[in-house]
Amino acid sequence: MINELKLAVLVSGRGSNLQAIINKIEAGKLPAKIELVISDQPEAKALQRAKKHGLEDHIVQREAFADQGTFEKKIFELLKEKNIELIVLAGFMRILSPNFIKNYPAKIINIHPSLLPAFPGLNAQKQAVDYGVKYSGCTVHFVNQEVDSGPIISQRVVPVKVNDTPASLSERILKEEHKLLPEIIKIIAEDRIEIKGRKVFIK
Length: 203
Ligand code: GRF
Known about the structure:
9 strands; 2 domains; Rossmann fold; two-stranded antiparallel sheet; binds 5-O-phosphono-beta-D-ribofuranosylamine
């Protein structure tokens, strides 16, 4: 029996990347199991997707806690309870503190809709359109203590067309996100990643 990587997927919204992971697992193409879906937004569409596929979901709202520390402690307890091996930030709109991140060295990954280090932070696709770059794309990276700046695992490039709006570019990038994220999770599940400083090697 293949060892399935135990995943927690953290979300805040639509959950299309969560869906892409679910689809690969259900198709038998990704040796992983989503043990937990955690959303900080009670209305996130991602929660409906989790329910539809029989996944355990939790709403952990920052507002329900006195401070960031107790909010993160709740998340930490859920992760611990399930012996989570990889935390996937898939459209999770909260910044995790260095204190939280240090518990999971090279065990948290994020997907970002630009070619980092270009256009970190919010509205990356709009930043790319406004800047006038000819290519953009998406990045999967390990999460370190600074926003969108951990070691890059892999990227996919898409062209930016002259008539692109942030919405049309987002759509083109999203198609690549849906392929890249499950692909990287698979590589991690197969233990084929080596990190040397900022550099990530896929064996
Ligand atoms: C994606 O564009 C992802 O790159 C960014 O947030 C968006 C989440 O989309 N971090 P979804 O919720 O997975 O549909």
